[in-house]
């Protein structure tokens, strides 16, 4: 049965510690004095902060260490700002973790409460700062997986790419894409269309004429841009999340919030937490496959093996930067 984190001012007593989800900070004085006291505040959307992964991890930590979690769901910027300010002003909170979209709020609070630890988690590598650590997706690895899936699913076609501006050869996204294509056994050069071209008068004609069934959308797109890409009839692989989706979206980024929270908290428990650094993290998968019916089953299975190799570092994308030799 699916478990979700209760929303409201509900409390759970586990192993002598307290897990709180709601608007009120926990009372740290109730904790056993024989244990080291650590308090972590978590602010995120209800789907992220209340996910099964967050609940399972915080429950596990609560059962073996003296930690208080103050979890505050926030689906709107104003709600998030109020929650973050409330946590920052509580002198007993050691670490505050939130979504990277709230980076401006966190940066301002970090300058005011420079003794507090702040963690940002998201797909984009936000700039770290004093008192702030950033956990983000590894763009090279993410693009590697996307490039592999697209090339392996349509081995006789080039991979189509939509981006806001041309990438340099050492761009993590571009490197990862090429490495993934080569790993799939293809030496085809990607076909590139800029967002400006796609949104132009003849943009739809241009998109439909591409000799590929898939498009990798490398940069963030707004609703109207995504609608235009959907009209092209191509299958879309997204590297950034979107506000809404369409049947043409085959794969979108999988959430990494729970993985980022885990990394932040574990580093705090291990006394290895550092500010002013950006750390790549990986969740259960780089992508949420929305349309598995559009990808060969064996490619999805191999994709899972590829991600396992990236996670345990037995697969090194850099080895595939050059095209495979053609016999």
From TrEMBL:
Keyword field: Signal
Lineage: Bacteria, Bacillati, Bacillota, Bacilli, Bacillales
PROSITE patterns documented for this protein: PROKAR_LIPOPROTEIN
The protein, known as: ABC transporter substrate-binding protein
Signal peptide: 1-25
């Amino acid at each position: 049965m699916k478990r979700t984190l209760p929303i409201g001012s509900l409390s759970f007593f586990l192993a002598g510690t307290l897990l709180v989800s709601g608007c009120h900070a926990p009372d740290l004085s109730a904790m056993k004095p024989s244990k080291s006291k650590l308090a972590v505040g978590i602010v995120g959307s209800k789907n992220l902060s209340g996910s099964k992964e967050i609940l399972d991890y915080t429950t596990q930590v609560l059962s073996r260490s003296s930690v208080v979690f103050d979890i505050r769901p926030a689906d709107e910027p104003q709600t998030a700002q109020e929650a973050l300010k409330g946590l920052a002003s509580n002198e007993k909170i050691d670490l505050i973790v939130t979504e990277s979209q709230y980076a401006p709020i966190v940066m301002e609070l970090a300058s005011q409460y420079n003794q507090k630890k702040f963690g940002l988690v998201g797909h984009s590598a936000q700039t770290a700062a004093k008192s702030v650590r950033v956990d983000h997706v590894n763009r090279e690895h993410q693009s590697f997986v996307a490039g592999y899936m697209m090339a392996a699913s349509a081995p006789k076609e080039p991979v189509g790419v939509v981006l806001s501006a041309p990438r340099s050869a050492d761009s993590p996204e571009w490197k990862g894409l090429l490495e993934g294509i080569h790993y799939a056994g293809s030496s085809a050069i990607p076909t590139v269309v800029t967002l400006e071209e796609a949104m132009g008068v003849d943009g739809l004609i241009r998109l439909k004429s591409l000799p590929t069934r898939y498009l990798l959308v490398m940069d963030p797109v707004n609703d109207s841009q995504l609608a235009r890409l959907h009209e092209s009839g191509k299958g879309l692989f997204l590297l950034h999340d979107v506000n809404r989706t369409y049947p043409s979206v085959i794969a979108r980024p999988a959430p990494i919030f729970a993985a980022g929270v885990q990394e932040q908290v574990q580093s705090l428990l291990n006394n290895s937490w550092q500010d002013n650094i950006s750390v790549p993290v990986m969740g259960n998968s780089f992508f949420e496959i929305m349309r598995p019916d559009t990808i060969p089953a064996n490619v999805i299975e191999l994709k899972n093996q590829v991600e396992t190799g990236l996670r345990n570092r037995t697969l090194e994308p850099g080895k595939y930067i050059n095209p495979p030799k053609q016999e």
